[in-house]
Design brief:
By secondary structure, the protein is of the alpha/beta class. The protein has one domain (about 1-240): 3-Layer(aba) Sandwich (Glycerol-3-phosphate (1)-acyltransferase). The protein contains eight helices and seven strands. It has helices at about 1-30, 40-55, 85-90, 110-115, 125-140, 170-175, 190, 225-240; strands at about 60-65, 75-80, 95-100, 120, 145-150, 180-185, 205-210. A seven-stranded mixed β-sheet has the order 1-7-6-2-5-3-4, sandwiched between helices. Strand 3, helix 4 (about 110-115) and strand 4 (about 120) form a beta-alpha-beta unit. The longest helix has 30 residues, at about 1-30.
Length: about 240
C-alpha cells in the first residue's frame, strides 16, 4: 500500500512538472534565445519549481550559515541524490546562474531546452568534452553567471545513497577564476524522492538544505585544488542525514 501511494505521488508530481513546464514553455523559448534574458529565464525556472513543489506538497527549507551576496558570482557544489536537486537550486538562486550536468540531459524532454542554451552539458567519460565544458563555464563565470555543479558527477546507485568521490574540475575552476565556492548539503531529499523516483516513488514532505559559508579562493593556488576538494567533501558530508 505504501509503495502504491509513493508511486501515485510520483505520477502526481510529474504531472505538475509537465503541466507548469508546458504553461511556461513560450517564455522559456523566448528567454533562452539571448543571454541578456537569462535572468528572466531563471525567474521562470524558479516559478516553475516553486509551483511544482507547492502543488505536490514538497517543501524546501534552507538554512544559511552566512548570508550570501546577491551581487557576487559563486560556484555552488552540492551532493546529488535526486532529480529534485535541480529544483532545490532553481528555488534558492536568483539572477544569472547556470548548471553543469551530464550530456544525457540533452535528450530530457523538459531539461533539454536549458542544456542546449543556458546550461552546460558534459560527457564525463571524455576529457575533450570536460575541457570544453569547463572552458565554457569559466567564460560564463567571467560574465557574472554563477555555476551550479554536482562534483560527484552522478547519483549514487546505493540506497541509502553515499557521498561519492568528487571530480577535480570545479575546484580548479574556482581557484583559477578566483570565485568563492559555496558547499551545499542537500540532506534528506533522497528520502522524499531518490534518483528519479521510479524505484521507490516519492512522497510529500520537508526537504532540508544546508548552505555552508562561502570559501574564499583568492589566496589559493592550483596545487591547492585537492585540499579544497577534501575540505568541501567533508563540509557537505558533515550535514548529511542517513
Amino acid at each position: 500500500m505504501i509503495n502504491f501511494l509513493r508511486q501515485a505521488h510520483r505520477v502526481w508530481f510529474l504531472f505538475w512538472i509537465i503541466f507548469f513546464f508546458a504553461l511556461l514553455y513560450p517564455l522559456y523559448y523566448l528567454t533562452s534565445r539571448n543571454e541578456k534574458y537569462y535572468s528572466a529565464l531563471n525567474f521562470c525556472r524558479k516559478l516553475n519549481s516553486f509551483l511544482c513543489s507547492l502543488f505536490s506538497g514538497v517543501i524546501f527549507i534552507y538554512t544559511f550559515e552566512e548570508r550570501l551576496n546577491n551581487k557576487q558570482t559563486y560556484i555552488y557544489c552540492a551532493n546529488h541524490t535526486s532529480n529534485l536537486d535541480i529544483m532545490v537550486f532553481c528555488i534558492m538562486c536568483s539572477g544569472r546562474y547556470h548548471f553543469m550536468g551530464k550530456d544525457e540531459l540533452l535528450k530530457n524532454p523538459v531539461l533539454s531546452i536549458f542544456f542546449k542554451t543556458i546550461d552546460i552539458s558534459v560527457n564525463r567519460e571524455s576529457k575533450i568534452s570536460a575541457f570544453r565544458a569547463f572552458k565554457k563555464a569559466g567564460e560564463n563565470l567571467e560574465k557574472g553567471m554563477s555555476l551550479i555543479i554536482f562534483p560527484e558527477g552522478k547519483i549514487d546507485d546505493h540506497y541509502p545513497p553515499k557521498l561519492g568521490e568528487f571530480k577535480n574540475g570545479p575546484f580548479r575552476l574556482a581557484i583559477d577564476k578566483n570565485i568563492p565556492l559555496v558547499p551545499v548539503s542537500i540532506t534528506n531529499v533522497w528520502k522524499i524522492n531518490w534518483d528519479d523516483g521510479s524505484k521507490y516513488g516519492s512522497k510529500p514532505g520537508i526537504c532540508d538544505i544546508y548552505i555552508h559559508k562561502p570559501i574564499n579562493t583568492a589566496a589559493l593556488a592550483i596545487d591547492d585544488a585537492d585540499i579544497l576538494k577534501e575540505q568541501v567533501f567533508h563540509l557537505i558530508e558533515s550535514k548529511l542525514i542517513l
